[in-house]
């Protein structure tokens, strides 16, 4: 799950090109020998891709690499014309860099994509069907087996003999949908489905056993009627034998592969963690420059030892001087402000409880857990369960605060949030990674429809702080003043804050506040760090063209005070809104509706926001593709104003 | 799940009042004897309540009644002041009539509530915490164990010793959240939670084994680390012994109770079904008058035999002459039109597949399944799995049509619908029971936020047919013209249709059509059978006051063509919208936004729609409470116009 924000590695990076992979595949050696070599070379390339992109999941790309390589080199059938027949995909999708490296090595993805991980014109952070040979969109957890069942149904209807290999994580098995999906696969005897569990024992932050222990996993699958195998996921002989036995099963099969997270680089292997280490650090993000160099060298040495043993020449490497794009100037983050505000609130309220779904680090809860271990409830990757637990706590006098990524929190437990809302209790939901940036992870992680999804929950107020200073006032309002529940949209990326709240600012429901821009005829209403920064920059550009655009922060995403709006627009000739969200269901609709209901006719009006699924890429590219960067905004506003 | 629409029974109905229950509880007899008597009397009262209300779930109220009675009479502890200490609730909530009957008999609910099932001033169709002694809101499936865990956490924090008994259905075990919730209960050794499975083997329509077989249920729970017992759920001695063993367990326990759906009335017992019977008919709805009389008599006879055997006097019964409120005049239904349109589409498209989540009857799929058994996929109560399966099918060339109740379909698989949408395939979602009526089932089943929840899915068009004639044209548009996916909101209740589509009507995206009302200065834009009928009736009332209100049907719930709207409003002085949905995120916001963006200022404007959680009650009461009946609408419109 985690989406740690990393930094691209600067300096010399290495990768192997396709002809080296071709050489290895044609070596006169046992399949297991060739495959192990291939896998280590793919590890080297995945490491390159992640180091270059500045983020990606090393740990699971490496733990699953031997299995993914074996399946693609030795197991999956091709049609007579050479096209793929059997299908493989990863349900979790986090291990995409590993899969991409394998697919590039096999010529199933363009060679230049090795340089284009998490770029708008290249490979998205999680798989997408618009990329060649990607089978289904993943990144949202737990859907893979269901998807495979649907495909199996279609294949059977069409008389096609296609075997489906689905990789899942082990933390992913905490998702309820996995267990939903097992039932009919067994009842319908879908023997063309083989699930491989990458059982690397680690979740985003901590050991599975510390997060939400899975217990007797083979017994669970067996009780659900599946054929179960368990092997060392790095022992290709064991794996081949298990796959052979699976072929004889008369129903769906699961192979639980015991693997090592970060396998292949000694200091990235989770088994190398000090027993008192706070957490595993190579789940997501990018290695530091020295870590990269050390890891790459270790892989290269290992590959060359294997080549030498097989009587083959050493690896020929491609070298790239990587010069990452300059980082934006001074940036700020909401996360520390939230950690502090939550702890302060918990000091005042001994019934405040923080719940987490395997994202303690990304949601700023590590300090909270240190301070209040007995009031931290780790639910594992089980958002429905987390939200309903919170509902139960709230009924019994607690103030539960549910934390996750906004894309998951607003959607997976959507009915559970509503169920809580109908009980008229108070639950606080805090969704991180809100909005379209970071653009690296792709649409499964870009939360750009949560205002809509949570909007119509009665009594639930949606808020987004504009800067670190606004976090505590809004959180305190939710805890101490609001009678109902609240949902917070939180930007995770560090971002510029070229504006400031007025001195003595105090939040007031449905009221916005001017924070920047230049006096003039037009007003733009928006919210959050990312869009306020764009709006301010656009206002500066417009000023050069003689247009005054006033920038208003309205942190209330589903509450607009009509009288305040009328006052704000008095004497103005144009109203713009800017959503870090799809236009449909965003704040803009609510603002425009309020303006119309106030009888404020005759103004020029335009909503800016997402109209299509956002791309995966650099933050700048994502904003630009959506027409929401400062330049596009300024041009759009000027056009609307007739300038 | 099912919510068959029944009819209240007219004529003489019977129930037992509290003093008769008190008499039975003080009988000098074994607890098992007293409890069996109590349970049969509660069955008689639940039958009365359902017959009087015209709907409710007989089957599961009866199958669970012995267990519920035993727990309340013999197992659950009270505090020294007589207040409840241990807590019981049903996770499925369908069996509410049974629980209500028990609670009324024990004096834990007001005596007059026996006459007020599914009434706005009485008992909601599914439990709600605003009713005395109801522990949590249920009706949406699978949340109960999670809720109990949250309560257990709060109790432990507060140093309270409270045991939690949670009833689940067996069909309910198909929901993924159940399996999510089992994990931490076992890891945290929550021995204060006892789950009782009402294993009556039947789902809404068919046998569990025909729907989505559960396989080896005890093995499943055991694999998840729970202490497992299995008993005959009508054998109180077995039950008592199992509960005794549970008390010694050091973790959470589950008691799988083999029960008979409809237990207590011979012809309602599922075991009495002919082996070739199409389906079980006493899941939801109400008995017919002769069925009621026969069932009541059978229960009374059985009770009197038991009383006689215990040396006690016969039952004293209260009699009520029930005269149901008059039904509305001629009504029409969308369901048959949908069944026909779907079959016709499937005749044209051999890749069209219908998927169902245990609601074949309520979603009109019985004829489809008869015609195309090989293209009907029954998923059980597993909406996430259904939607992701549909996604897999669509990727492989099928046109999947997912059917369920709108309240579940738009929310439980919300992230799965989005995942499919990001693949840019075509999936049709058809959500029944849309809107606030029927009001009987209560808010868990009233789908009044699905426009918001599904609205911001890129490429997904939301539609609601206004009358049977509009079903096929809209469905055909979705299947044959739309490039993206569609979500249909379908009214389930029979309703008046005092309007007609113009001759030669052809749907056009974002365009509405005038269907009724009277020429004049004001326009109301709305959709669907229920609200169009209200709007037309309001227009008639307004005409008497000299106000002309034109009624426009806009079946596109998240698409508004601005030019069409401007044309429609030309020369008008007021725009009203009417949502069968919360105001927040409804069609009204989209219409008002489009009007403002068209520069149509200066009109009087008001949105009508839900502002609070709707009540559970008669359809008329539900509309009236929300201020959305014709009279309230007319008054509101007149006031806005200054009349």
UniProtKB/TrEMBL annotation, chains A, B:
Coiled coil: none
Family: Belongs to the transketolase family.
Origin superkingdom: Bacteria
Organism: Tistlia consotensis USBA 355
A matching Pfam family: Transketolase_C
SUPFAM superfamilies: Thiamin diphosphate-binding fold (THDP-binding), TK C-terminal domain-like
Cellular component aspect of the GO annotation: cytoplasm
Cofactor(s) this protein cannot do without: Mg(2+); Mn(2+); thiamine diphosphate
Gene3D superfamilies reported for this sequence: 3.40.50.920, 3.40.50.970
CDD domains reported for this sequence: TPP_PYR_DXS_TK_like, TPP_TK
Start and end residues of each Transketolase-like pyrimidine-binding domain: 332-497
SMART domains: Transket_pyr (SM00861)
Protein name (database record): Transketolase
InterPro entries: PDH/Transketolase, THDP-binding, Transketo_C/PFOR_II, Transketolase-like_Pyr-bd, Transketolase_C, Transketolase_N
